[in-house]
Amino acid sequence: MGLGGLVDDSSTVVFAGGGTGGHFYPALALANELVNQRPEVRPVFIGASRGIESRLLPGKSIEYSLLPVRGWERGQILTNLGVPWALLKSFLSAIKLHKRYNSKLVIVTGGYSSAPAGLAAVMLGIPLVLQEQNAHPGVTTRVLSLWAKQIHVAFSEAISHLPEKARTLALISGCPIEPPEKLPLNRKEICEKFGLDPKFKVLLVTGGSQGSVALNDLILRGLQEQSDSQQTFFSKWQILWVAGLENYELLNREVNEIEDCSRIRVLPYVDSMPLVLKLADLAVSRAGAMTTSELLAWGVPAILIPLPTAAANHQELNALAIQEFGAALYMSQMELTASKFWAEIYQLTDDDQTLSQMASQAMKNSKPDATSKVVSSMLKLLPEPRGD
User: Would you say the CATH fold of 187-364 matches that of 12-177+369-381?
Assistant: First the structure.
């Protein structure tokens, strides 16, 4: 648990969302903006002990509680037998936490870790606000939408997947992110921080908060095949490769075995995505909602390769929506080979006009004010501050 002790009866807003970065970071962005707009409000996080929030929250100056809830694991029948019990136990704990915190409002940003706090809010009659990042809402959002006071979605496509009763509440607000702002470091300083050359363009490779073995293998196989096109690419470009914590050591060794790896920088994880997004001239990425929203907000052209096992195929829907307005190229992992993928990379990185057009479309279709809009809206449900 984070900052301890009983919470007083001032306005307390509970944020529930996590498991992965795509659900956690929108909640964090909303919490930061909430304090910016209403400094007297106390934000509190309720998450999962197995989620990414268990690693990131201890470094934040915010109160939090972690529950034993866990998500379903594909093909793990015995492991999944414990999921209902963990959910029930977490639900009962969330009820106690809401009473302890005297919660006035609950914000759910999705993921398995948000279900207990959301369901407990419904049980206790606490106003509930949902924020859905994906083009296809997750199970938690779809269920809780029947009792929500507000529903904010990032994609218009999400509305048709909600229960009919909930659709009239849905507002297309965008995905909450930490808004692009002037960074204290310039390009040269950021390049030095990551061991890059400021004279070269940057291809950013990221598989999301957990990394992607399949994406890493696709990139690596192409790099291991020497060609004239590769030499041309590295005469102008360099690679910043966020491999994922579990994949880093092995991948870094394999990259170091490549004959000329001086233009490739492999990292296990990046805590400050704004820094790398400021550098990126093109990104290769999964199509999670948080990642795609950040790419749009920073005007970064992208090649999106959705995770084929994502729930309800939501990453593919995200990628197709962004490709439709010209900010990204969608490629299916199931139909992709290393040679086909790298042929597209070489063609795109040699076409400044197309990259410029894609960047322009990304900026045009981004919603950098999504965070402030969602917070301004949800504050209508929160009691006004008491006078002294």
Answer: yes
